[in-house]
Amino acid sequence: MHAEEKMTYEKWPAAPEKQTLEAKNKFLGFWFFLGGETVLFASLFATYLALKDRVPSADHALAKDLFEMPLVFLMTMILLTSSLTSVYAMYHMKNFDFKKMQLWLGITVLLGFAFLGLEIYEFNHYVHEFHHTFTSSAFSSAFYTLVGFHGAHVTFGLAWIIALMVRNARRGLDLYNAPKFYVASLYWHFIDVVWVFIFTVVYLMGMVG
Amino acid sequence: MVNTQTNSGNPETDLKYRRKKNAEEMRHQVISFALMIVFTLIAFLAVGYEGFSAWFAVPFILVLAVVQVGFQLYYFMHMSHKGHEAPALFMYSGVLVAFLTIICFLTIIWW
C-alpha cells in the first residue's frame, strides 16, 4: 500500500496512523517533541511557582484576589470536552468515515475558540480591573508567560486543525493524511494535559492561598 | 490488543470485528472522560469547601491532576496501546527533567 493510494472502507488498515514509514517517523518524532514540550512547560511552571505573589508593593493584586472559580471551571470543562470530541474524530478516522471525522474536528475547533475567547476576556479583565499587566510585577510576568504560552498553543492547535480540515476537504482520507490528523489530535490532547496542571497549580492553588 | 491487525482470512469478518473493537474502545474513552470530569469536580469542590486546610487541599488536588493526566495520556492519547514504548520513554524522560526543574526552582527560593 503506498501513501496516496485511493482508499476504500475495505482496504483501510486497522492502524492507518502508522501504516507507512513516513507515518511511523512522524509518530515517533511527534512524541519526542511532546517530551520536549513537557520540559518547556515545566520551566515555565517552575518560574511561576518561584515568583508567585512576588509583587513590589501592597497595592498589587495577588493570586487570591485575581482568580474566580466559575470562569476557570467553565474554561476547564470546555477544554476537557474538546479533548473528548477529538477522540471521537479519531474514532471515525479509524472507521474510515471522513465526514464524521470532519464534523467532530469542527466541534473541537468551536470549543477551542470558546476557550480562547474566555481567556482573552480573562486577561482583559485582569488588566483593566486590577492593573495586572505583563510588566507590573515578577508575579504578573510569570503568570502571563505561563498561561499565555498555553493560550498560544491553543491558537496554534486551532490553526493546525483548521488547515488540515480545509486542505483535505475534497481529498478524503488516505494513508498520506491520516497520520497528519492523528498527530494534530495528539497535540490537542497535550494542550489539555498542560491545562490540567494550569488549573490545578495556578488557579486552584492560587485560590487556596 | 485493540490496535493490532486482525486476520481471520475472511475480510468481512475482520472488518466487523474491527468495528466492534473500535466501538468498544470508544466506550472506554467515554468512561475515561466521565472519570476525568469527576476528578475535576472533586478538585474544584475541595478548594471551594472551607473545611479543608491548604495542607490537605494542595497535595490532594495535585494527586487528582496527576491521575487525570494519566487518563489523558494512556487512554485519549493511546499510550496504553502496543507500540508506545518509545513515546513512554520520551514522556517519562521529559517528566523527570520537569520534576528536577521544579524542585530546583522551588528550593532556590526556600529561605
From the alpha carbons, calculate the radius of gyration of chain A and give it in angstroms.
Answer: 20 Å
CATH topology of chain A: Four Helix Bundle (Hemerythrin (Met), subunit A)
Which residue ranges of chain A are poorly predicted, with pLDDT under 50 across at least 5 consecutive positions? none
Helix/strand order of chain A? HHHHHH
Termini separation of chain A comes to 58 Å
Number of separate domains of chain B: 2
Q: Residue share in helices of chain B?
A: over 70%
The dominant shape of chain A is elongated
Unreliably modeled segments of chain B: none
User: Tell me about the biggest sheet of chain A?
Assistant: none
What's this entry about, in short?
In chain A, 74% of the residues lie in helices and 0% in strands.
Spell out the blueprint of helices and strands.
The complex is a heterodimer of chains A (209) and B (111).
Chain A lengths: L20 H31 L11 H4 L2 H26 L3 H33 L7 H30 L10 H31 L1
Helix pairs in contact in A: 1-5, 1-6, 3-4, 3-6, 4-5, 5-6
Chain B lengths: L10 H38 L5 H23 L8 H24 L3
Helix pairs in contact in B: 1-2
What would you say this structure looks like, in words?
The complex is a heterodimer of chains A (209) and B (111). Chain A has 209 residues and is an all-alpha fold. Chain A has one domain (18-52, 62-208): Four Helix Bundle (Hemerythrin (Met), subunit A), CATH 1.20.120.80. Chain A is built from 6 helices and no strands. Chain B is flat, with a radius of gyration of 20 Å. Chain B has 2 domains: 1-80; 83-111. By secondary structure, chain B is mainly α. The relative contact order of chain B is 0.09. At the A-B interface, helix 1, helix 3 and helix 6 of A face helix 1, helix 2 and helix 3 of B.
